[in-house]
Amino acid sequence: MKIAFVFNLMVALLRFSFINAQIDDQSILLPDFKKNGEVPFEKVYLHLDRPYYSAGEDIWIKAYLVNAVTNELSDSSNNLNVELFSPGSKIIKRLILRLDNGVGAGDFHLGDSIASGNYVIRAYTNWMRNFGDIFFFKQEIVVENQLEIKSIIQPDHQENNENVDVQFFPEGGPLIENVYTLLGFKAVNSSGYGCNVKGHVFSSPGDTVTSFSSSHLGMGGFFFLPKKGLKYYAAGYAGNGIPFKVELPAVSETGYSIKVSEINKDYFRVTIKTNQETLDKCPLNEMVIVGTSHNSLCITAKAKVRAIDNPVILSKKEFPEGVALITLMDTTGKKYCERAYYVHPKKNYQITIIPDHEAYAPRQKVTLQISVRDTSDNPVAANLSISVVDGNQIKSFEKKSDISSYLLLESEIRGYIEQPSFYFDTTISGRYQALDNLLITQGWRNFIWNNLPDTVNKFNYPIEEGITVSGR
N or C: which end of the chain has fewer CB within 10 A? Predict the structure, then answer.
């Protein structure tokens, strides 16, 4: 029998430091970050043994509770609420998992009479309830109450004759006259799944400006130089042959935008872009670049805007791995634009799995040798969970969520992310560019930490260090 080992790994991530940058007076930055500076934020991830089940089986769960800022295992809460929702959105099972140093395990038993359908498992601590459901973990599973499982295999999302919605997002701010800008785009069908598109950009007089085509799940980007006094639109066809025509965002006469680009594994470049009209109105304007992650201040830098392109080099070591937000503001604290940017890991941990046999008979004992090491080949302390499933049964569930994609991406960007683990598959050469396209489009002004409720308010739900009982 062919089997597939599905691993989840949790290793301690390095904490990042708060630095004093080139700004003499950082009081202009405090209102946005002070309110969350001392507030503990939590995230939880559930590793389930597989994505589909039959009636009468058990759903085996291992839970990881982490500090939402550092992604280190957290011992703040000891109780984890786990709920199973029916296809009708009713809670049909509920349990409380005991967490020890951020780790816990448990299971749900599915009765023999449970109906077939798509179910949802939700997990949260009592403390998370203070922030709405923004940090709640949710995962869909499929339950089948028949002998065969063919009906639960989810088909690939093929392009069909549905209409296509194409949206365009200028990188790091607005489109500005005579400013060379990266314009990201994302195309989805009526079901909300990415679909391939290609087309051209036209000016209002009807001249062809440039062409474009998507590269992954309907997303892509192209550079574009908007001219003074002109409007633009895009027209083309989706992969299913359905035409589309969309107006591009309006072009501003003056303003600022930012471009973020990779330099190497240690540094990246932030370029403040503007036009001559803006420079004439605000000569030698002083601006501030603010880098944050998880709503915590990581780095600040001053820049004199003296030209149409003003590059600033920033160090990645001040950021944790994950989605960072680069914001441009002036010295009074007024924000002009922002850009979501992914800071890739500084260390890669290698997991080695050596089974005692290449093939196994039913009910035969399996012995594995598991090793976790860093890039220097030193052993690393790790907390792991493993599930064993029939590899032929999970083809349609490839590139779904895993612990890396959930903690580092899905829980940071609002909205549905299709094939999230694609962006963390080291065998895919173009995953970094695809991830940047995702952040330029879906991450545009949609950063999850911008949507937090005001945490200055009184907390209604305390951190649970044990079982709390109330009522009659």
Answer: C
* Host H or E run for residue 120: strand 117-124
pLDDT of 119 over the 70 cut = yes
Q: Is the pLDDT of residue 460 over 50?
A: yes
Please report, as a single letter, which amino acid is at residue 381. Answer: A
User: In terms of Cα–Cα distance, which of 45, 140, 135 is closest to 84?
Assistant: 140
Q: Is 471 left (phi over 0), alpha (psi -120 to 50) or beta?
A: left
pLDDT digits (tens, 9 = 90+) for 19-69: 333 444 445 554 555 445 568 899 999 999 988 899 999 999 999 999 988
Cα separation, 439 vs 326, whole angstroms? 12
What's 11's DSSP letter?
Answer: -
Pairing of strands 91-98, 164-170: unpaired
3-state SS, residue 448:
helix
C-alpha Rg value of the chain to the nearest Å: 25
Per-residue pLDDT reduced to its tens digit, 278-328: 999 887 788 999 999 888 889 999 999 999 999 999 999 999 899 999 999
Task: Show the tokens assigned to 20.
Answer: 């004093």
Non-local (6+) Cβ contacts of 390 within 8 A are 1, 2, 3, 4
Q: What is the DSSP string of 154-216?
A: PPP----SS-EEEEEEETTS-EETT--EEEEEEEEETTS-B--EEEEEEETTS-EEEEEE--B
**Percent helix, strand and coil across the chain, each rounded to 5?**
15, 45, 45
CB 383 within 8 A of CB 64: yes
**CA–CA separation, 179 and 224 (whole Å):** 8
Beta bridge partners of 210: 201
Count CA within 13 A, CB hemisphere, residue 57: 19
CB 259 within 8 A of CB 271: yes
Helix (H) / strand (E) containing 110: none
Q: CA 217 to CA 66: how far, in whole Å?
A: 30
96 neighbors 467 (Cβ within 8 angstroms): yes
Number of Cα atoms under 13 Å in the Cβ half of residue 470: 1
Whole-number Å distance between alpha carbons of 72 and 16: 12
Own/partner contacts of 398-406, CB < 8 Å, gap of 24 or more, are 399/425, 400/51, 401/139, 402/8, 403/8, 403/9, 403/10, 403/45, 403/47, 403/64, 406/45, 406/137
